[in-house]
């Protein structure tokens, strides 16, 4: 029986096999309205109610093909929304099926949807809508069993004046009539989609805007606003190689298409693995392909997360830890092992930061936290990603290396493809695979693993992995030199310290990131030192978002006020939470920065996606 503490649906009585959406997009009222038709199957006897998750959606009617059904919306749970309780008027026996048709409309409070004004897009001419359903926001886009334990196929007809794209395959489009909107002089079109593979509700995704697509590979297209199409097509040209490398490592890619959608800057994450159409932040468009590891990550989700899915958010590491592990395998094969190890070092630092932020005994630093009564967005951090990765990395080494572990990884995907699993399922198969293929010797090794500390313990992992630090050494050494340059008498100059632009000339952008992080671990440098560093390395002018973030954080830690306007500019034009949240949090902590951080957020609140706005408001102590 599936268990999911973050869903109010009667998961033990019914499952949804298919959803068909018939929705109209109204940019004037910022409302999606129409029908959701759910194909439901009883998985127990005597089922007379269907309970679905909803959040802030306006339910207008519920019916079957034959009759109207009585329904009631339960009182709102602040975190999980309002249960929609549908009285079937008869009892279903196990295996019986029924179709319910729910007429509904979204409201301004639906947290999955961000409606952008034309001014908030790159082109500034057309409005834009996009959704983000992970973890539990699908219930604000449609009434559904909003739990990753339920996997269903879906189809959709989306009627809109601008192009629609979805986490599905486009199977047709039909022109209806000319738009009557004063701003959008386009034909109203119905775009028809089909997702034939079973997916959890959090992977249902929609975007509508002035979108153009360009082929970047035999099964891939990049979609975005025309103004950024060229740059996006150039940046993501390695997409097919990532997919092929994933196929060599695991199993054939099973989703047909792999397209990318580059969203406006308010997209709250680096990437979201929506099947057939990964959503990515425009902050990846560095102009040098240096940030495309995120695409390798999203492609890796095609196997881990999208085929093999966590049963509930307490086992999120099964999605993310596995995906980071596969992502780094892909990078290792394509660019060399020193690059994947370097990424692991960077990841380890991110894990330390997450643990420090929560506190090392906080329950959310456990690999499998208890989420009963919790909002998954509050539990989100690098922990499931990096502690999960570290567990798999540790197991690989402990069990005998890639010769043993890579066949296991493939078998894991084959064994669980199409299913939702929890950590017990994962561990049971790991044991049985190792015993069946390599014998008792591996079982003995598995028995030596400190499972309790790895899976339930809080804080940093119980065992330390050693990563190859070839690419990190130069970064550490340069940061040490800056640390040692503190004794230099004022004025702090290039001549006296011996620093020059050449120091970082051969650094990759990730090496510059690691250098800045290493400096960030030291006692804050003096403002004269920061002035010099900026003059020599031109850091304030860097466009690369990852470098920019670390530079800003370093300066904020030193209360270096010259950076404050830059921080305000960055955080108010970049909605990716990886950037906006630590920037505003650090500004809030910096000398004379608290008011500025709050002001910045409040002034630009409508720029942020609702998920980001909620989290930032909490970070800044504006809400609980
Ligand atoms: C143990 C954690 C428990 C629950 C978390 C479950 C879901 C988290 C929810 O907040 C949604 C997360 C969506 C993530 C999407 C993409 C990320 O991989 C992006 C990572 C950050 C970035 O690079 O911007
Ligand atoms: Zn991921």
From TrEMBL:
Keywords: Cytoplasm, Hydrolase, Metal-binding, Metalloprotease, Protease, Zinc. Binds 1 zinc ion per subunit. A peptide binds at residues 132-134, 268-273, 576-578. It is found in: Cytoplasm. InterPro entries: Aminopeptidase_N-like_N (IPR045357), Aminopeptidase_N-like_N_sf (IPR042097), ARM-type_fold (IPR016024), LTA4H_cat (IPR049980), M1_LTA-4_hydro/amino_C_sf (IPR038502), M1_LTA4H (IPR034015), Peptidase_M1 (IPR001930), Peptidase_M1_C (IPR015211). One of its GO terms (molecular function) is zinc ion binding. GO terms for cellular component: cytosol. The active site is at residues 298, 385. Its cofactor is Zn(2+). One of its GO terms (biological process) is proteolysis. PANTHER family: LEUKOTRIENE A-4 HYDROLASE (PTHR45726:SF3). Belongs to the peptidase M1 family. This is Peptidase family M1-domain-containing protein.
């Amino acid at each position: 029986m599936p268990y999911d503490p973050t869903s109010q649906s009667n998961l033990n009585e019914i499952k949804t096999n298919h959803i068909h959406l018939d929705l109209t997009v109204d940019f004037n009222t910022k409302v999606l309205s129409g029908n959701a038709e759910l194909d439901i199957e009883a998985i127990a006897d005597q089922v007379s109610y269907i309970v679905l998750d909803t959040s802030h959606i306006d339910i207008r009617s519920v019916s079957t093909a034959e009759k109207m059904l009585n329904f009631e919306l339960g009182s709102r749970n602040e975190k999980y929304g309002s249960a929609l309780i549908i009285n079937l008027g008869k009892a279903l026996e196990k295996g019986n099926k029924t179709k319910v048709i729910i007429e509904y409309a979204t409201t301004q409070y639906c947290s999955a949807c961000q409606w952008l004004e034309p001014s908030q897009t790159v082109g500034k001419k057309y409005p834009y809508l996009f959704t983000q359903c992970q973890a539990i926001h699908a219930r604000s886009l449609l009434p559904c069993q909003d739990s990753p334990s339920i996997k269903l196929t879906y189809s959709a007809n989306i009627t809109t004046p601008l192009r629609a794209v979805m986490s599905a395959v486009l199977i047709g489009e039909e022109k209806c009539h000319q738009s009557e909107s004063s701003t959008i002089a386009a034909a109203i079109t119905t775009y028809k989609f089909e997702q034939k593979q079973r997916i959890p509700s959090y992977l249902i995704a929609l975007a509508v805007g002035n979108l153009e697509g360009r082929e970047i590979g035999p099964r891939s297209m990049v979609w975005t606003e025309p103004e950024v199409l060229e740059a996006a097509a150039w940046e993501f040209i390695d997409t097919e190689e990532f997919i092929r490398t994933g196929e060599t490592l695991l199993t054939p890619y099973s989703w047909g298409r792999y397209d990318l959608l580059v969203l406006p800057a308010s997209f709250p994450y680096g990437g979201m693995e929506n099947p057939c159409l990964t959503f990515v932040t425009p902050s990846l468009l560095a102009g040098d392909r240096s940030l495309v590891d995120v695409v390798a990550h999203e492609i890796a989700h095609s196997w881990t997360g999208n085929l093999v899915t966590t049963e509930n958010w307490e086992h999120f590491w099964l999605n993310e830890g596995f995906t980071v592990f596969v992502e780094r395998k892909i990078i290792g094969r394509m660019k060399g092992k020193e690059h994947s190890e370097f990424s692991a070092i960077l990841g380890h630092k991110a894990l330390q930061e997450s643990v420090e932020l929560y506190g090392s005994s906080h329950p959310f630093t456990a690999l499998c936290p208890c989420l009963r009564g919790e909002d998954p967005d509050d539990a989100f951090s690098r922990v499931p990603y990096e502690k999960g990765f570290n567990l798999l990395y540790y197991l690989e080494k402990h069990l005998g290396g890639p010769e043993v572990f890579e066949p296991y990884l493939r078998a894991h995907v084959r064994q669980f493809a199409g299913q939702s699993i929890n950590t017990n399922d994962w561990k049971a198969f790991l044991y049985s695979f190792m015993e069946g293929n390599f014998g008792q010797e591996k079982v003995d090794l598995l028995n030596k693993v400190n499972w309790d500390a790895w899976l339930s313990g809080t804080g940093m992992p119980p065992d330390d992995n050693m990563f190859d630090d070839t690419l990190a050494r130069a970064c550490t050494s340069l940061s040490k030199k800056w640390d040692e340059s503190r004794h230099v008498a004022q004025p702090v100059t290039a001549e006296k310290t011996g620093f020059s632009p050449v120091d970082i000339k051969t650094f990759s952008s990730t090496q510059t990131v690691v250098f800045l992080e290493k400096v960030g671990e030291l006692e804050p440098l003096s403002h004269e030192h920061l002035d010099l560093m900026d003059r020599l390395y031109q850091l304030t002018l860097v466009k690369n978002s990852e470098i920019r973030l670390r530079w800003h954080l370093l300066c904020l830690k030193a209360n270096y006020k010259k950076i404050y306007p830059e921080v305000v500019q960055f955080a108010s034009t970049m909605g990716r939470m990886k950037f906006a949240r630590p920037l505003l949090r650090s500004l809030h902590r910096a000398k004379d920065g608290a008011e500025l951080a709050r002001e910045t957020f409040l002034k630009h609140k409508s720029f942020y996606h609702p998920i980001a706005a909620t989290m930032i408001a909490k970070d800044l102590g504006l809400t609980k």
